Amino acid sequence: MLKLLFIGDIVGKPGREIAEERVQRLRRELGIDFVVANGENAAAGSGITGSIARSLLEAGVDAITLGDHVWDQRGWENEIGELDRVCRPANLPASCPGWDHVLIESRGFKVAVFTVLGRTYMNLKAECPFLCADRMVERLKGQADAILCEVHAEATSEKQALGWHLDGRVTAVLGTHTHVPTADACVLPKGTAFLCDVGMTGPYASVLGREVAPVVSRFMDGMPRRFEVATGDVRLSAALVEIDPSMARATRCELVTVRP
């Protein structure tokens, strides 16, 4: 069996530090062949930079995916095209810079990775994730032995629907964005690993990675405040997917939580 570890949304410096510290150890201890990480909140909680992306890749991450905060850091649009192991969401307009997928390889087995943004309660301009996923699967199935589709979306119903839509056509459909890990890790009937949300890699003594007090106050009075990245109870949250290389189907999917 091959093993793929998908690390959920890395949030700020605390998330970067635990990811960079633990990736190589997890590769050894769990026998991981592939490591993919969502890095869209890695720079101070919003977006990513070239230096941060390179640091994560050097620490042992094979590929980095992004989400609705893809363009939050100034100048990133000029850097993303230089990093062929980083991909933006595939259902953004074609005129957007950057790669719409990544190919990674281990032991002669190739995995294609792409992300689609959901459209329910999401504000970024994006094509229908179902139609985009259909197109990407058709395009990539001749280039890779297995396909991982990340669905970066708010609504659990939209994520579940996409999982069923792609069951048997991709090896895994893994959800991100809400920063809260869900308890529904499974392998769907036709062999696709599924999890609604992988959760956040960052500080859990927080509100979605941000300091508690200003967020609570914002809910109470509606006044704008600066939401700093929190620092307490840092965890790495990831999905571990086992793949049968003979059929490119998932045989196991589980949530992995790592504390310092």
How is the topology of this model organized?
Elements: E1 2-7, H1 12-30, E2 34-38, H2 50-58, E3 63-65, H3 76-79, E4 86-87, E5 102-106, E6 109-117, H4 129-140, E7 146-152, H5 156-166, E8 172-176, E9 186-187, E10 193-195, E11 202-203, H6 212-221, E12 234-244, E13 249-258
Count of alpha and pi helical runs? 6
**What would CATH call the class?**
Alpha Beta
Helical fraction equals: 25-40%
Compute the separation of the termini in Å: 28 Å
Beta percentage is: 25-35%
Radius of gyration (Å): 17 Å
Named CATH topology: Purple Acid Phosphatase, chain A, domain 2
User: Pairing-aware structural class of the strands and helices?
Assistant: alpha/beta
Please give the largest β-sheet.
7 strands, mixed
CATH architectural label = 4-Layer Sandwich
The parts where pLDDT drops under 50 for at least 5 residues are none
Kindly give the count of domains: 1
User: What is the mean predicted local confidence, pLDDT?
Assistant: 97
The coarse silhouette is globular
Give the strand tally.
Answer: 13
The CATH superfamily is: Metallo-dependent phosphatases
Q: What is the string of helix and strand elements?
A: EHEHEHEEEHEHEEEEHEE
List keywords for this structure.
13 strands, 260 residues, Purple Acid Phosphatase, chain A, domain 2, globular, 27% strand, 7-stranded mixed beta sheet, alpha/beta
